[in-house]
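// run 5 | inverse folding | seed 20
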C-alpha cells in the first residue's frame, strides 16, 4: 500500500461524505441539524488537547489535516475513534467526548437514520427455509472453502445468465465499503456492515426482518449452524468481539472477545464446525506503525477456538510462538520490539476428515522474521496444536511505515501475505485431496494436506503489496480459478521487465498448468476518474460460469470453457434502494458474490487503497 493511495482514500472519503450529508437531511427533513453549543465547546476542547498535535497541517506525516477531516461524515470520524484507526489515540476519551469531537471536526450533527416503515417485513422462518438446498454459510460457502455451488444450488446456467436483471438494491447508511458476505438461509440473507449493524434481509425483496447492532465493523462472512431446533449465526467484529445470535429472534446468545492484544482485530470470517467457532486474529499494528512514536510491534496473528454454545475459549493458537522483546533501536532512538505480525487476515478452512484447521498468515511487522510469516499452517481442530507449518516466503518484514518512517523494519520485505483462506479440494483423477492457495506474490501453490509438501506452484502475476491473489480462488475439482489483482499500485516503476498481469486464470488442478486467462477489458469512457484494471475480489464458481467483480465496479460472468464474458453489469451508479437511502456503487473487492436459487448477490463499494467508495448490496434475478 503506497502513501499515494492512502491519500486518495482520504480524498475520496471526503468527497463521498460531503454528498451524504445532504442525503440524510433530505431524508429526514424534520430533523434539527444544529449542534448544541455545549457539544461544540466540548468538541473543540477535546480536539485542541488530544488531536491537534498530530492533525495540524504538516505536523505528522499521514495524519489528515483538520480541513480534510471536516469533509468526513461525523459517523465515520466517530467510527475511527471507537472502532477504527484512531482507537488508540482516543482511548482516554469518554463516549461523550468522542461524539463531541466528531461533530466539532465535521461541523455536522450526529443523527441516527430512520428507515421508512416500508423497508421492513415481518421475520418468519419455516422448516423449508432451514432445510433449503441452496443455503450458504461462511467465507467459501462450505467448510472446505471451494467457492463452488452446484447447478441445483445456483439456479443459474450459462444459457440463462445473460437474462440476469437487477431486482433490488439495499444501501448501508453512511458506509463507504461493503465487505461482509451474506449467509443465505431459505428466504433470508444475513449480513453485517461497516458500522456494525447485522441485517436479516428478505432475499426476494431486500426488506429488513431484523437488525442486530454489533460494537464494531463486521468485515467477514456470516456463518451459521443449526441443531434442528435453533439456528445460530456466528460472526466477529473488527475489535475481535465474537457473537452468537439466534437467527429466529435476532437476539444475542453470547458475546466473547477473542484476542487480548489491544490492537488485535478480525478481518476474516469465522468458521464453525462441530460446535466450535474458529476466529482468525489479525492486527492493526501494521497501521499504528505509521506513528513514529508508536512502540512497534508486539502482536501476533492467531486463531481462537470458542465453544459455540457458550462462547468460552477452548484454545488460542499464536502464529508467532515467541513473546516479543526489545530488539534494538529505531532511527529515532526509541526501542523496536519483535518478533511481531504474521496476522491471519483471511478465514480458516476446516478439514473434518483429518481433524485439521488450515490458515494462511501474513508478513512479520518487525525483525526478527519468523518462519511462520507468509505461511500456511495446519492446526489440530480439537487441541489447537500446530501440526505443520509451510513457509512460502522468508524474511518478509514490512509495515505501513515503509519505506521511510522510523518504524519501517530493515531490510524491507515484499509484503506478500496470504490473504485468502486455503481451499481443500478432492482431485478425482488422482484420488487425493489437495490444498490450493494463492498468495500476494502472484503464485498459486498446491500442497499435500497431511504435511504441507508442495505438489506444484504456478506464477500468474507479478505480485507485490497490492498484487497477486488477494481474496480468493474457486475450484470444482477440475480447474482452479484464481483472481490476480496486480493492481497498478503494485508496479515497481524501476522494474521494466515484468508488468502487472491482472485477470482471471484457470489452472489445471492436477498439474497447475494454465488452461486460459482473461484480462480485465480495457477501460471504457465513463464516470470513473481513473481506471483500475484489477481483479482483486474472490470469485464464485457454478457449472459453466465464474462470477467475478473488478475494481472498476463491473460484475461479470465468465465462461469456464474459455473465459469469454457471458454477462456483465456496471455497478457504479446511483440506486434508489428498498430501504429509502441513496445508494452508490463503487469498486468490487473483498468477498465473492453469492449465488442462490436463481439469484446473484453482489457487494459494491470499497473505500481503501484508492478504490471507489460505495454502499450497496445488489440483488440480480435470472428470468428462468
Ligand atoms: C499521534 C498522532 C495522532 C493523534 C494524537 C490523533 N491522530 Fe488521527 N490520525 C493520525 C494519523 C497518522 C492518521 C492517518 C492514519 C492512516 O491513514 O493510516 C490519522 C487519521 C485520522 C482519521 C481518519 C481515519 C480513517 O479511517 O481514515 C480521523 C477521523 C482522525 N485521525 C481523527 C482523530 C481525532 C478526532 C483525534 C483526537 C481525538 C486524533 N485523530 C488524534 C494521527 C493522530
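// decoded
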Amino acid at each position: 500500500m503506497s502513501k499515494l493511495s492512502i491519500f486518495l482514500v482520504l480524498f475520496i472519503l471526503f468527497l463521498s461524505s460531503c454528498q451524504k450529508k445532504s442525503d440524510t437531511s433530505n431524508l429526514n427533513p424534520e430533523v434539527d441539524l444544529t449542534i448544541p453549543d455545549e457539544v461544540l465547546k466540548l468538541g473543540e476542547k477535546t480536539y485542541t488537547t488530544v488531536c491537534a498535535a498530530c492533525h495540524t497541517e504538516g505536523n505528522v506525516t499521514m495524519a489528515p489535516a483538520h480541513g480534510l477531516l471536516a469533509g468526513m461524515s461525523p459517523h465515520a470520524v466517530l467510527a475511527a475513534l471507537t472502532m477504527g484507526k484512531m482507537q488508540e489515540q482516543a482511548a482516554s476519551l469518554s463516549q461523550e467526548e468522542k461524539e463531541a469531537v466528531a461533530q466539532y471536526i465535521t461541523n455536522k450533527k450526529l443523527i441516527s437514520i430512520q428507515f421508512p416503515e416500508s423497508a421492513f417485513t415481518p421475520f418468519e422462518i419455516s422448516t423449508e427455509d432451514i432445510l433449503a438446498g441452496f443455503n450458504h454459510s461462511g467465507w467459501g460457502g462450505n467448510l472446505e472453502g471451494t467457492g463452488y455451488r452446484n447447478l441445483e444450488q445456483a439456479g443459474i446456467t450459462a444459457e440463462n445468465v445473460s437474462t440476469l436483471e437487477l431486482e433490488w438494491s439495499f444501501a448501508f447508511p453512511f458506509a463507504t465499503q461493503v465487505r461482509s458476505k451474506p449467509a443465505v438461509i431459505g428466504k433470508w440473507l444475513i449480513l453485517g456492515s461497516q458500522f456494525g449493524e447485522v441485517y436479516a434481509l428478505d432475499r426476494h425483496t431486500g426488506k429488513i426482518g431484523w437488525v442486530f447492532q454489533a460494537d464494531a465493523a463486521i468485515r467477514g462472512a456470516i456463518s451459521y449452524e443449526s441443531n434442528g431446533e435453533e439456528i445460530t449465526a456466528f460472526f466477529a467484529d473488527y475489535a475481535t468481539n465474537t457473537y452468537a445470535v439466534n437467527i429466529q429472534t435476532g437476539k444475542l446468545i453470547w458475546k466473547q472477545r477473542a484476542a487480548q492484544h489491544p490492537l488485535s482485530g478480525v478481518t476474516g470470517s469465522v468458521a464453525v464446525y462441530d460446535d466450535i467457532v474458529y476466529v482468525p486474529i489479525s492486527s492493526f499494528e501494521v497501521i499504528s506503525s505509521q506513528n513514529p512514536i508508536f512502540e512497534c510491534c508486539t502482536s501476533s496473528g492467531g486463531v481462537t477456538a470458542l465453544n459455540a454454545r457458550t462462547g468460552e475459549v477452548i484454545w488460542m493458537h499464536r502464529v508467532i510462538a515467541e513473546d516479543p522483546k526489545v530488539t534494538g533501536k529505531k532511527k529515532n532512538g526509541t526501542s523496536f520490539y519483535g518478533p511481531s505480525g504474521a496476522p491471519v487476515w483471511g478465514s480458516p478452512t476446516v478439514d473434518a476428515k483429518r481433524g485439521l484447521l488450515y490458515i494462511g498468515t501474513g508478513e512479520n511487522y518487525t525483525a526478527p522474521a519468523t518462519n511462520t510469516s507468509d505461511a500456511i499452517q495446519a492446526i489440530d481442530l480439537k487441541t489447537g496444536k500446530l501440526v505443520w507449518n509451510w513457509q512460502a516466503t522468508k524474511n518478509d518484514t514490512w509495515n505501513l511505515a515503509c519505506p521511510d518512517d522510523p518504524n519501517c523494519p530493515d531490510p524491507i520485505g515484499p509484503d506478500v501475505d496470504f490473504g485468502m483462506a486455503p481451499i481443500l479440494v478432492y482431485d478425482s483423477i488422482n484420488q487425493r485431496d489437495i490444498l490450493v492457495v494463492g498468495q500476494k506474490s502472484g503464485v498459486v501453490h498446491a500442497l499435500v494436506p497431511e504435511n504441507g509438501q508442495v505438489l506444484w506452484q504456478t506464477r500468474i502475476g507479478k505480485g507485490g503489496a497490492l498484487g497477486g491473489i488477494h481474496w480468493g480462488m474457486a475450484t470444482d475439482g477440475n480447474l482452479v480459478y484464481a483472481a490476480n489483482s496486480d493492481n497498478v499500485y503494485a508496479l515497481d516503476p524501476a522494474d521494466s521487465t515484468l508488468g502487472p498481469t491482472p485477470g482471471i486464470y484457470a489452472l489445471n488442478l492436477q498439474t497447475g498448468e494454465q488452461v486460459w486467462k482473461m484480462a480485465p477489458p480495457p477501460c471504457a469512457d465513463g464516470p470513473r476518474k481513473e481506471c483500475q484494471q484489477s481483479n482483486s475480489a474472490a470469485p464464485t464458481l457454478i457449472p459453466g460460469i465464474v462470477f467475478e467483480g473488478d475494481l472498476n465496479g463491473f460484475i461479470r460472468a465468465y465462461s469456464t470453457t474459455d473465459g469469454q464474458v457471458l454477462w456483465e453489469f456496471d455497478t457504479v451508479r446511483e440506486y434508489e434502494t428498498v430501504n429509502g437511502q441513496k445508494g452508490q456503487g463503487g469498486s468490487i473487492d473483498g468477498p465473492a458474490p453469492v449465488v442462490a436459487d436463481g439469484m446473484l448477490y453482489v457487494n459494491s463499494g470499497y473505500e481503501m487503497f484508492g478504490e471507489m467508495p460505495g454502499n450497496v448490496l445488489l440483488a440480480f434475478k435470472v428470468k428462468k
